[in-house]
Design brief:
Layout (H helix, E strand, L loop, with lengths): L1 E19 L4 E15 L5 E8 L12 H17 L9 H4 L7 H19 L3 H5 L5 E3 L1 E4 L5 H14 L3 E5 L6 H11 L5 E4 L9 H5 L9 E2 L7 H10 L4 E3 L6 H10 L4 E4 L7 H13 L3 E4 L6 H10 L33 E3 L12 H7 E7 L2
Parallel strand pairs: 5-6, 6-7, 7-8, 8-9, 9-10, 10-11
Antiparallel strand pairs: 1-2, 1-13, 2-3, 4-12
Helix pairs in contact: 1-3, 5-6, 9-10
The protein binds 2-succinylbenzoate (OSB) and magnesium ion.
């Protein structure tokens, strides 16, 4: 394919409830969708969609929404416009001279993938090698100001039928909340925590106290670059350590596994530069007997649909952060967003990512568009 034009649709969607992590409180989602126009050898034109998952602030990772749009405009888009035979499988190669910016690159790879698969009439799930048509749906619960509010919030998601609860934690908002959730909902509740790098190895004695609550895992307790420290922490506690922020590539995943720093890996396609790298991490982890699950970045319907397909690969043996669209949004920007029922979401089966962007909704939430041409 040849890239004809790119349009970045900057959007701002209100969240149904504020979402607090150890690094920030989000009240709305500011992100952008990438709309790519492509032509194939026979002159057919086709549209493909991608989503940029960077947050507005560089607190989770170095990337941020405006920065991702800027690097696409100045550097990534021109490199793709220069390519004569663009395929999803060669996007990474075309962009390899630009250091970093995995989320910006992933959004572009998505648009190429979606277009390529639509041309072929193939679903993303089939392309990836998905082995199931539904995937278990977990929910990520933000830090609540009080234990009572944590219990109330978790109760609501448990009643809705979510297959797994992940509670965000930080120092001062950890043991007490975890203990209360276990006591209230029992030992059968699939339950895990995510610290978003809020601790250091000196907190090992406190973190170790989480061991008695039968958690599925603790996600990213220490800072992004603390691979060795995560391995040391793993020696000091029985709860499996899962890495999120620390894993930025298949190569990094291999190092983490080798070091004993990751018993489990949270795979987020944006964080690792795209869905093809995400699949490589899946393959690597599976070969090593390391469980993986699909993380989330408060995606709109486009990103969530693609995540559901990824999570249908055989190595995704733990429920992902693939909650229904209504967990974050009263209204989405795709026609039929992901819905959770009885703890499951359907893997989209239509061509490409299998969702249609609703232009009217896009206009409603739009804060501007950036037009890019060769
Ligand atoms: O650490 O998994 C995380 C959202 C933004 C940044 C980091 C994380 C998260 C989530 C949200 O936990 C999960 C979701 O999108 O459902
Ligand atoms: Mg995380």
């Amino acid at each position: 394919m040849k890239l004809i034009s790119l349009r970045l649709h900057m959007v701002e969607l209100p969240l149904v409830a504020t979402f607090t992590t150890s690094f920030s409180t989000q009240t709305r989602r500011e992100c952008f969708l990438v709309e790519g126009q492509f032509s194939n050898d026979t002159g057919r034109t086709i549209t493909g969609w991608g989503e940029n998952v960077a947050l507005p602030q560089p607190f989770y990772s170095a990337e941020y929404t405006a920065g991702a749009a800027d690097v696409i405009r100045r550097w990534l888009a021109p490199a793709l416009f220069a390519a004569d035979h663009l395929t999803a499988e060669t996007v990474t190669h075309q962009l390899r001279h630009i250091v970093g910016h995995p989320m910006a690159k992933a959004a572009l790879e998505m648009a190429v993938l979606d277009a390529q698969l639509r041309l072929r009439g193939q679903s993303f799930a089939e392309y990836l090698g998905a082995v199931t048509s539904t995937v278990p749906s977990g929910v990520s619960v933000g830090i609540q100001p009080t234990v009572a509010e944590t219990l109330k919030t978790v109760a609501n998601y448990v009643e809705q039928g979510y297959a797994r609860i992940k509670l965000k934690i930080k120092p001062g908002y950890d043991l007490e909340h975890v203990a209360a959730v276990r006591k209230e909902f029992g030992n059968q509740l699939p339950f895990q925590v995510d610290a978003n790098a809020a601790y250091t190895l000196t907190n090992a004695p406190q973190l170790r106290r989480l061991d008695e609550y039968g958690l599925l895992l603790i996600e990213q307790p220490l800072s992004e670059h603390d691979l060795r420290q995560h391995a040391q922490l793993a020696q000091q506690m029985t709860t499996p350590i899962c890495l999120d922020e620390s894993v930025e590539s298949a190569q990094g995943a291999a190092d983490a596994i080798q070091l004993g720093a990751a018993a489990v890996i949270n795979i987020k396609p944006g964080r690792v530069g795209g869905y093809l790298e995400a699949r490589r991490i899946h393959d690597l982890a599976r070969a090593h007997g390391v469980a993986v699950w699909c993380g989330g970045m408060l995606e709109t319907g486009v990103g969530r649909a693609a995540n559901a397909a990824l999570a249908a690969l055989p190595g995704f043996t733990l429920p992902g952060d693939i909650s229904g669209s209504d967990r974050f949004y009263a209204e989405d920007i795709v026609a039929a967003p992901i819905r959770m029922h009885d703890g499951w979401v359907d893997v989209p089966q239509g061509p490409g990512f299998g969702v249609e962007v609703d232009r009217e909704q896009l206009r409603r939430f739009s804060t501007g568009t950036v037009e890019l041409t060769p």
